[in-house]
Description:
Blueprint: E1 6-10, H1 13-30, E2 36-40, H2 47-55, E3 66-70, E4 72-74, H3 84-91, H4 112-126, E5 128-130, E6 133-135, E7 138-141, E8 166-170, E9 177-181, H5 183-186, E10 191-196, H6 202-209, E11 229-235, H7 236-239
Parallel strand pairs: 1-11, 2-3, 2-7, 7-10, 10-11
Antiparallel strand pairs: 4-9, 5-6, 8-9
Amino acid sequence: METFTEVRIFSKPKKVYNAIAKELIKLTQNSTQEIFDIALSGGNSPKGLFKKLSQKYADQIPWNRIHFWWGDERCVSPDDEQSNYKMTVDYLLSNISIPPENIHRIKGEANPEQEAIRYSEEMEKSLNSRGKNPVFDIIILGLGDDGHTASIFPDQLELFEDEANCAVAQHPITGQKRITITGNVLNNANQIFFLVTGANKALRISEIMDDSEAAKLLPAYYISPENGELIWFLDEAAASLIS
């Protein structure tokens, strides 16, 4: 199984953020599309990228054409410290000038099952499609220590076969409910950027890159856009165990 298109390794996290920022600038500036749809990752990984975009490159990105979506969200209110949306507001959205209608948040405070359906319908209505699935121009993904990505966890690999665009997932340890985009939508993107930094991710990265048996248990291993490009942006610590 071909698990990656391109791997770029940088000396430190700041250089990873810079490289992704420059890639986003290039793709959005060169695009003739009226609307450019980007699905964002949650967790800690993108904070540095969001700071870089809003502090250094804010004037180089056509925000009026960018529509932001989320790959997943924890089932909490939008002002909760665990909310992916709140983190994005704090580090990016509050520092740039973007039309409010360009922000498509997952309502973590809503009934999870109903919200998965609502968000799925919003994607169908707003996004381009290829085959029966919606298409994101770019999806930015992170990698958990356990190999999860978006909110597809190792015990829920069936979400790569799920017919729906969104599903309700559950964190295997805390039991917290989350809403996630499913594998069919993730693998329908035009571009996927994996943003992975830190030595705590090195074992999972090596398993995936070395195509080991252990990798077949990891959701991130199954990210392979059928009609798009996959780029891994790693720092040296995350890449340190690749053989």
